[in-house]
Specification:
The chain is mainly α. 68% of the residues lie in helices and 0% in strands. It is built from 8 helices and no strands. It is globular. The termini are far apart. 29% of the residues are buried.
C-alpha cells in the first residue's frame, strides 16, 4: 500500500478530495436509482436527492480525514441511531453496499484504496443494521 489510509487525510486525498467525493456520490445515487435490488432502500430516501447527496459528500469528507463538513453544515452525526428510524436489515445494508461498490468501481481509485474503502464501509453498515434491529425488535 503506497498510502497509509486512515491516517491523516490520506483516504480523503485518495478519494480525490471534495470533487472526487462528489463524483462518487453522484454515481452512488445513479446506481441507487437504477438497480432493482436497491429499490427498497431508495424508497427510504426523498424523491429529490439534493440534500441527501450533500449530506453523504459532507459525511464522507470528514470520515475519510478531510474537512468535517457534515458537522459544520448539519451538526453532530450519529449514523446508527439516525438510520435506526427505518427497518434496515442485512439485505438493505447489502443493497446499499452494492450501490457503493459499483460507484467506487467507476472511480479512478488505486486498487488498494478500493479494498480499504469497501472494508471500512462495511463497519457502519453493520452498526446501522444492529441499531435498526434493536429499535424494531418485537
Amino acid at each position: 500500500m503506497s498510502e497509509q489510509y486512515g491516517v491523516g487525510d490520506a483516504s480523503y486525498r485518495a478519494a480525490g478530495g471534495l470533487e472526487g467525493l462528489r463524483r462518487l456520490v453522484e454515481d452512488f445515487y445513479r446506481f441507487m436509482d437504477a438497480l432493482p435490488e436497491a429499490a427498497e432502500v431508495r424508497a427510504m430516501y426523498p424523491e429529490e436527492l439534493v440534500v441527501a447527496r450533500d449530506k453523504l459528500v459532507c459525511f464522507l469528507s470528514g470520515w475519510l480525514g478531510g474537512p468535517k463538513l457534515f458537522a459544520e453544515k448539519y451538526g453532530s452525526i450519529a449514523i446508527p441511531s439516525f438510520h435506526a428510524q427505518w427497518p434496515i436489515g442485512p439485505e438493505q445494508a447489502e443493497a446499499w453496499l452494492v450501490c457503493m461498490s459499483r460507484a467506487v468501481a467507476c472511480q479512478r481509485y488505486a486498487p488498494d484504496f478500493v479494498d480499504y474503502l469497501m472494508a471500512q464501509l462495511h463497519a457502519p453498515a453493520q452498526r446501522i443494521v444492529q441499531a435498526s434491529a434493536a429499535r424494531h425488535a418485537p
